[in-house]
Amino acid sequence: MIFGKKEKKEPAPKSQEPKAPVSKPIAKEEPKKEERPVANKITVGHVHMSGCTGCLVSLADNYEGLFTILDNYADLVYCLTLADARHIPKMDVALVEGSVCLQDELSVEEIKETREKAAVVVALGGCAAYGNITRFCRGGQWNQPQHEGFVPIGDVIDVDVYIPGCAPCPQQIRNVCVTAYLLLKGNAEQQALAKAYLAPLMALASEGSKATSSEACGCDIMTKVINQGLCMGCGTCATSCPVFAITMEEGKPNIQRDMCIKCGACYAACPRAFFSFDVVNQYETIIDAIHGAMNPGGN
Amino acid sequence: MDYLGKYKSAVAARSTSAEVLRCSQDGGIVTSMFLYALEEGIIDGAIVAGQGEKPWQPKPIVATTPEEILSSRGTRYNVCPNMSVLKESVRKYGLDKVGIVGTPCQIQALRKAQLYPIGLRDVCDKIALAMGIFCMENFSYQSMTQIVQDHCNVDLHSLKKTDIGKGKYWAYTNRGAVSQIPLKLTHKYEQPGCHVCLDYVANLADISTGSVGSPDGWSTVFIRNNNGENIWNKAVAAGVFETKPIESVKPGLELVTKLATEKITKNQKEVEHRASFGVGKGLRNPYI
User: Fold this and answer.
1) Residue A274's closest chain B neighbor by CA?
2) Do residues B43 and B37 make contact, with C-beta atoms less than 8 angstroms apart?
């Protein structure tokens, strides 16, 4: 139920006895050259569609945090920029950056392959989730002038989790990595917490994967929040906008639509877009869990 | 439903600074707290409601000096989007330890932003002190203008203080005149978004405060978590506040609970009402 694809394949290991059954398929995929093997790591890949690599840079911008993630929680099994693998392997989590170019056969093939090979597909960043700036492309550019149709990956495959924003913030990627690990490998309590944490990002994905509504921009703040009588003028949308397209006028967001790049950050950040008391009331527990996970030595 | 949220302790308190109390709304808790935290290096600056372009129009500012904090004393009773400068406070002002004051909804937004820092690079780990204020509902600037000018017949330029209490909306002028109208008259001017709010006493703040429950000139203070408790205890030890046990004051927590229950019950009904707003169609529910 929580991750459609995953459940079909191995429904049992997630619940009672995670260790033995889950580690098996992982071990198969674990690269041999790992010098200090850590049991139970998840496998993560970065799949590059039509994007600027900014999302990957953002992942790397966790600095030493990235090493903590790679040392303890995840093996980077595929990443054209940072790892040697050339072909998409089987993996637990695929972080997909960029939109899909419909005229680029390889892209279409790879995104489908990603869906087949990954238990969890994460749309990393605005382009993968909502099309972002590639929504404005209409072809005619060098050196592939015929490349003109770019769609969010949700138009082509089912996506499990959205991380909106351009670029998505390093800490948000970190939080998803850690909670994904807890969801797949943690104890029952950790799984419940991780499930609750990821639920809104999964809701965004299921919303966005419907081809008819896979559009995000400042308009969402208008249509889904203000038009619905929900805005109370906190200003979170304005502070989240990476291009400063939103200013607060008379206590309400004013969206310069010409400046909007359609990254989806404002709507995802809005407390009246989604708000889960179950999760946010536990903010200290979750933040502590993430900090604890990122600081395993406790230094 | 947990109407008052989690808290470690509750007290009635007021600032010991005559300068703060001279223009504060009630006990001057937020202003004094930020002044103390700034002086002690607990925060590098605070996001507060500064003066906007028009009279009584607030504007969120990143205050980095005691003067700026002092000049933001008092409640303005209209919307100040404090969250809107959060990223700026870290990235433009370079604060490593941010203080922020907000209404319950703004504190909810803040905690959500810390958990889901979408578009808030390097910000979420830098919140050092979140002060929450009690809030029943808020008004847009135009609504407030209408209430004060049309209903209370007071010009905004000569308005000294506004207050809500004892079932009335009060407007005090610089020359000492007092105008009051039944609070009921102001209801239609409330911000629609406030009617789905399920938090009265800023349940998610480090420390939350408001006048309700304590005598005039005092504030009720909830100290909610370890961070809040640390800072509060230090401030009290440093003589920033004088305190009384909340049990010793009238009307006390009973009134706070009553009003919180009223607000949340009413708004919960509104959320339910929205679900069947149309004919077989509802409005969006933000709570999942």
Assistant:
1) B286
2) yes
Q: What is the end-to-end Cα distance of chain A in Å, rounded?
A: 38
Do B108 and A276 make contact, defined as CB atoms within 8 angstroms? no
Inspect the interface and report whether the beta carbons of A197 and B82 lie closer than 8 Å: no
The pair of three-digit structure tokens given for residue A213, joined into one six-digit string: 């509504």
Closest-CA residue of chain A to B84: A235
The DSSP element (H or E) to which B232 belongs, if any, is helix B226-237
Do B22 and B80 fall within a single domain?
yes
Higher-confidence residue: B175 or A210? B175
User: Which chain A residues are within 8 Å of B195, Cβ to Cβ?
Assistant: 229
CA atoms within 13 A on the CB side of A98: 18
Judgement on whether residues B240 and B217 belong to the same structural domain of the protein: yes
What is the arithmetic mean of pLDDT over B270-276?
Answer: 96
Would you call B118 and A203 a contact, using CB atoms and an 8 Å cutoff?
no
Q: Are residues B181 and B209 in the same domain?
A: no
Partners of A276 on chain B (C-beta within 8 Å) are 287-288
Give per-residue pLDDT as tens, A153-211. 999 999 999 999 999 999 999 999 999 999 988 899 889 989 999 999 999 898 876 65
Query: In order of start, what are the domains of chain A with their CATH numbers?
Result: 39-214+277-294 (3.40.50.700), 218-269 (3.30.70.20)
Which residue of A lies nearest to B78 if distances are taken between CA atoms? Answer: A251
Domain assignment present for B57: yes
For residue B194, the chain A residues in CB contact (below 8 A) are: 232
- Residue B160 belongs to domain with CATH number: 3.10.450.750
Note which residues in 114-153 of chain B have CB less than 8 A from chain A: 114-125, 138, 140-142
Contact: A271, B109; criterion CB under 8 Å: yes
| Residues B29-58, mean pLDDT to the nearest whole number | 96
Structure tokens at A216: 């995000």
Residues B99 and B112 in one domain: yes
| Residue B163, domain extent | 141-187
Residues B15 and B110 in one domain: yes
Which residue, B123, B155, B187, sits at the end of a domain?
Answer: B187
Residue A17 confidence (pLDDT) above 70: no
% chain A with pLDDT above 70: 83
Domain count, chain B: 2
B96 and B15, same structural domain?
yes
Residues B129 and B164 placed together within one structural domain of the fold: no
**A242:B119 CB<8 A:** yes
In sequence order, the β-bridge partners of residue A248 are A253
Q: Using CA atoms, how far apart are residues A285 and B112, in angstroms rounded to an integer? A: 13
Q: What are phi and psi of B236, to 5 degrees?
A: -65, -40
- Kindly determine whether residue B118 and residue A233, on different chains, have CB atoms separated by under 8 Å: no
pLDDT per residue as tens digits for the range B186-199: 999 999 999 999 99
> What is the rounded distance in angstroms from the CA atom of residue B40 to the CA atom of residue B232?
12
Whether residue B19 is found in the same domain as residue B71: yes
Tell which residue, B129, B126, B149, has the closest CA to residue B139.
B149
Cβ distance A230 to B140 less than 8 Å, yes or no, reads no
- pLDDT for the residue A218: 75
Q: Is residue B163 part of a domain?
A: yes
| B142 Cα to chain A: minimum distance (Å) | 8
Give me the residues of B, 186-245, that contact A with CB < 8 A.
191-198, 203-204, 225
ipTM of the complex: 0.94
What is the per-residue pLDDT for A210?
67
**Cβ within 8 Å of residue A16, ≥6 positions away:** none
